Amino acid sequence: MSVELLADKLSSSFIVFENELNGETKTDLHRIRRESMAHFEKRGFPSIRQEDWKYTSLKPILKHDYKVFHKGDQALDFSDIKKFFIHDIDTYKIVFVNGVYSSWLSETTHQGYDICTFSAALRRHRDVTNQYFSKAADNTSAMVALNTAFAQEGAYIRMSKGMSAVKPVEIIHFTTEEAGSLLNQPRNLIVLEEGSEVQIIERHQSLGSKPVLTNSVSEIFVHANASLELYRVQNDADTASIINHTSIQQHRDSRVRTAVFSLGGKLMRNDLNIAFLGENAEAYLDGLTLLDDGQHADHHTRVDHRVPHCNSFEMYKGIYDGNSKGVFNGQIMVRPHAQKTNAFQQNNNIILGEKASVDTKPQLEIFADDVKCSHGCTVGQLDDEALFYLRSRGIPEHEAKALLLYAIGDEVIGKVRLKELRNRLHKLMAKKLNVDFQMEI
Questions:
Q1: For residue range 199-212, what is the model confidence (pLDDT) as tens digits?
Q2: pTM (whole model) above 0.90
Q3: Residue range of the domain that includes 16
C-alpha cells in the first residue's frame, strides 16, 4: 500500500468512525476532531522535506495495509503477559488489547482520584475533557491532528487537589498476532490538580510478528505544587513502530520528571514539549537509547521557558550498533520575560557499528539576559584507555566493553526513583548488551 492510499483509507475510516458516534457528533469535542481530520487531509503524512522530519522517513512503515479498528476477541492469558508488568510492586493498571480496554486485566479506581480510560471520561467527566482536550497538544503537527481526529480511547488520570496516588500507575498497550497489521491511536489525558502526585509507567508491546504502528498523543497538565514522574519503556518487536507526542504544561512550583528508554522497535519517534506557565517550576528530561541492526530512534524535545525562575535539566544518551540510526533534536526557548532561567541540555552518543549513525542538533534560543543556559553534544566511540585498563586486569574484551556501556546507561537509569523499575531496566540493558554481570542489580 502506498502512503497516499493509506491516507485515503484513513479519510474513509473517519466517516465510519463518525457514523458510530451517534449524538456525540454535535459536541464541541467532535468539532475539534473534524477540524483535525481536515488539517491532516490537507497536510498528509510528514516527509523528510520537513525540517522536523529531515532524518526520519516514515515511508518504510506506512507501506502496510493497517487496520484502523479492531473488534475481535480480546482475551489474553495473564500468564503470557505477566512478564511485561512491573510485578515486583503493586500498581494501578490501565490495559488495552488491540486498542480496546481490557477490564479484567486492569485495576482502576475512582476513590479520591480517577484512574480509568479516556472513553469513560468522555461519558462521566465531560466538563474536564472539554476543559483540557486539545489544549496542550500541537494540532499543527499532522500526526497529532490524525490522533485528535480519532481520539476515543486511552488513559485518563485526574489527581484531585492534595492527593497522592498510593501506588504507581501502569499504562500498557498489547497488540496480538490475531489483530494483524494494526494502527493504534491512543489518547491520554492526565491532569494533576494543585499539590497532587503520581508516578506513571507506560509501555506498548506487540505480541505477534505483524507490522504494528502506534500513533500516541498525551496531554498533561501539572498544576501548582504538583509532582509527576513519567517513565516510558520502549522495548518492542522489530516489526513494531511508535510515534509518541507528549505535551506538558507546568504551573508554579510544579515538578516533572520524564524518562524514555528506547531499547527496541523498528522505528521510535518521541516528541516531548514542556511549557512553563508558572514561576519556580522545574523539569527533568532524561533519555536512553540502545539500538542495534535496522532500528531507528528519533527524539525531539522542546522546553519553553515562558516565565521567570524556572529550571530545566535534560540529558539524553545513545548507544548505536550495527546499522542503527539515532536522531536528537533538542530545543530550549527562553522568552524575553523569563529572567533567572536555569536550563541545561546534554546529548552524548556512542557509535559501535561501522554503519551506525546519529544526527544531533541541540539548540538554544535565548531572548533574556539574566539566565544560566548551556547545551552540548558528543558523538564518539568507547574510550580506548578505559578499555585497555579493564583488559589489563583480566576482563575479556566483550565484558569490558559491556561494563563501559553499562556505566554510560546507568547515568540515566540510576535517576529512576522507582527501585523495581530501575532493577528491570538494569536487567534489560544487560540483556541488550548480551552479558551477565553475575551480581544483584
A1: 999 999 999 999 99
A2: yes
A3: 3-278
